[in-house]
Amino acid sequence: MIKPQQLIEIGLITATLSVMLGESVLATSSQLKTSSSSPQTTPIIIAQNSSKSEADRLLNEGVQLFQQGTAESLREALEKLQAARELYRAAGDKGNEAFTLVGMGRINDLLGEKQTALDYLNQALPLFRAVEDRGGEATTLNNIGLVYDSLGEKQTALDYYNQALPLYRAVEDRGGEAGTLNNIGLVYDSLGEKQTALDYLNQALPLRRAVEDRGGEAGTLNNIGHVYSDLGEKQTALDYYNQALPLFRAVEDRRGEAATLNNIGAVYSSLGEKQTALDYYNQALPLRRAVEDRGGEATTLSNIGLVYSSLGEKQTALDYYNQALPLRRAVEDRGGEATTLNNIGAVYSSLGEKQTALDYYNQALPLLRAVGDRGMEATTLNNIGLVYDSLGEKQTALDYLNQALPLFRAVEDRGGEANTLTNMASLQRSQGELTEALVNMEKAINLTEELRSLAPPGELRQTFFSTVQDRYQLYIELLMELHQQNPQKGYDALAFHASERSRARSLLELLAEAGANIREGVDPQLLQQEQSLIQQHNAIEHQRHELTRGQFTQAQIDALTTQSQSLINQLNQLQTQIRVVSPNYANLQYPQPLNLEQVQQQVLDDDTLLLQYYLGEERSFLWAVTKDSITSYILPNSTEIEAVATPYREAINLDNTTTVAQGLALSEILIAPVVNQLNNQRLLIVADGILQFIPFAALPIPSQPDTPLLVEHEIVTASSATLIANQREQLANRPTAAKAVAVIADPIFESNDPRLNSQISSENHPPSLDNLALARATRSLGLGDTAPQLNRLEYSRLEAQNIAELFPENERIKALDFEASRYLATHPNLSQYQIIHFATHGLIHPVNPELSGLVLSLFNPQGESDNGFLRLNDIFNLNLPAELVVLSACQTGLGREVRGEGLVGLTRGFMYAGARRVVVSLWNVNDLATSQLMTRFYQQMLNENQPPIIALRQAQLEMWNSGQWQSPYYWGAFTIQGDWR
């Protein structure tokens, strides 16, 4: 069942338009008709009597206090305006009396005193009409509309705005016209009429700019961003928000700045980037409190609660919601109150307190209908439907879902529509209505694909996709149930295609971008900024490493960590911008996931069997695909598989006494069902979940518990079958590099390395046997608070020498000691080599893949500290058209696990850089054993003329048969990813 739907709340910016209360110089009532040809205000006309002069002084002071924008200054302004109003009234000055009344109304509105605000504004209106001040009348009508808008009375608000608009046009007040157009747009937005809203907002924007109203321009930009966010066009929304933010800051509008920060956070939250969302919300919250914007504060508190709820911290979420709710009520924000009530209901629903959830939903629903918020009404109806479904009242549940669906469509909320369709499909499936459920799921998946295409490219699209994987899981479940009922209808082929659609899409798109050279034609300044950010980030990380080598405080480490994360965020945003402005990106057609027939034609051959796994909450699936057939199998659910796979993974990762037979229980689950189809074929493994960490080559043949699969099969791993086809097409006509191999090994890591003080020949420095158990340990420098001990890997030197000797001297480069440097690894000349071999320590960061990389020499020949970290962003910027990249280090095949994407780490970096295939490891490999394995691997490739996949298999078999290295701990970690041909 899909989780209850909650709503991210957006901060909208209305036009204040309180008769130029934002101006620093006042005008009398007769001069309030602002000319469109001149944005300048007229000087104060000083009355001849002292009471009039005093009134003008009070009014002027009130305006200045209003401009400060804090609650305290607003209250002081109110006192000044009240005093001025009495004096103007005594003097019979109806125009200026009306002016002060509008100001008093606007201030009360900002302070949440809505009815008082209306009282003052309704007193002002006849006064402006009495003195025939159409500009003042228009402003008052606009501000009355604002109050009714905030009270949720949208049609009444629209009536007032539509009275104001022709008056502004009659007096040629383009600023006032822009403000009212903006406000009309907001009403239509709240009513779900998104295109009409955009029409009005796009009329307002050029007027804002024409009168050089930067604050108003920022407000309208923010509001356009909100509409696009609602339409699911998140990148476009971010573009508008990021235009608005600096303008708000330039005019020191903290309310507007806070609203936009809140809205940016809402986009990141909707895309699954919860921590980034919290960062923005926590910037917005103190600003809203500083200006005592209680409504805005409530919005941000509610949004923070939503993040904690999605992270599973339900009590923390309730704490934030319960702070927001009284603020909503205090400012009479019925729509906001209803949203928070809905969100509280969703928490109680997730906690199993269904009746309490219903109570909150049923409080929210009439409020939402009263204010005409159809989108939020649909959300609440959907959630009520989910509660009734969980209570077993299926028909009642379906009735609510069927009420929600047309509302979501009316307001063009594709995400809400997809969510409700999924919930309907889940309900129909539980009632055995599989065909009807499938129809709804196909609609939901198509909407999801649309939304995915509209999400910002790169990491944000990847995280968004991870949040909607439940839809693909239900879709696959449905298809496989239908396959069981109708085995000849091809539902298993559709399920296989759905599995391809659900995995590694961002990697496919990355490789397509690499082939299209999306940086070509981009403003060089943007590319320079990208390089600058990468250099700054590398410098910070190097500084952090240097700091941890000596005396340091945790506060120092934390400060550098914060700077590092900030630079990563800036770099991600800039890279998104580069994509958006790239001419090549604009014309790029992303590859689509292949269906069964296409995989059979473009990927498989007569000797290859594809084993594609999908782990689900209810059950898991295995599709065994050959060039002309597909067979599907039902496996235990993901929890049961993990219970068997986890201890096996831990054992083989750490214990050199682990035997092949210890994987038998896992092999019985994963291999036994398909054992009769194996037939000594090459196995292409597309794994899922924890299976991505499992060495399939080391799993035993079920009928021969002491014999690994490796004995009878070549084994290749891939993120998806489509990826293989895409690589083949992209690299089909690429010329082979001129030279053979570049080997980079045995760098200098520590200041006590004897090579810093002597000129030891690289050829006569044999490793000592006391390093036998030393691992090429993978470190997570981004997570630790102390410096990792980067021991010298002496056998990497022997490995490099043995490999180099297999190649003619003029076709190789062997870089050891100081030469095994970041400078060499990033040098353009490395693109001349067919094979690039790194033998060193690896870095894997399970949270921020950008920090993953390889460690090269940390000192130069002069003994000075040097940046030797080759991180993922550096790798993405390499040009390595290599046939093979070998990462002879620890855990280089691992990375951040992203649902629906797989492991995000070094492999995709090197493939983006141009590598056809990559050899990587799954755990901390032993130094000496790895040296032995790699020497045998290259001997097979060079002496026996074997392709890499066969060469690796033969090398691993030799290790297994050797006696000394028989444990799969020594040889099972390495696997080939990419095209095996």
Describe the structure.
The chain is of the alpha/beta class and 981 residues long. Among the domains are: 14-172, Tetratricopeptide repeat domain (Serine Threonine Protein Phosphatase 5, Tetratricopeptide repeat); 596-721; 738-943, no CATH class. The protein has 38 helices and 18 strands. The strands form 4 sheets. It has an 11-stranded mixed sheet, sandwiched between helices. Strands 11-12-13 form a 3-stranded antiparallel sheet. Strands 5-6 form a two-stranded antiparallel sheet. β1 and β2 (620-626) form a beta hairpin. α15 (334-350) runs antiparallel to α16 (354-371), α19 (414-430) packs antiparallel against α20 and α24 packs parallel to α31. The longest helix is centred in the middle third of the chain and has 28 residues, at 554-581. The chain starts with 49 loop residues before the first helix and ends with a strand.
Summarize the structure.
The protein has 38 helices and 18 strands. It is of the alpha/beta class and 981 residues long.
